Amino acid sequence: VLDGGAFNFSVSSLSNGLNSIRLISTDEINKNIFMGEEFVPVLVDTEKPVIDIVDIFFRSNADNTKKAFLENGDIDTNSNSIVLNISVDATTLNYTFNNKTEVVPINGGMIELALNLKSGKNNLDLVVVDEAGNVAHKAHQINYDNEKPSIEDDSLSPASVFKEKNVHFFLQNIKGKTNKANVNMVIFTIPEGVRDSNDNSVSCNDYSNLFFRQSEDRDENTYDPIESIPDGQLSLLSLISHKEELTSDSNGNFEALVSLQEKNIDVDDATGTKISAVKTKNTICMVLVDRFGNEKIEDFKVTFDAGNTAVSYTHLTLPTKRIV
Question: Would the pTM count as exceeding 0.90?
Answer without folding.
Answer: no
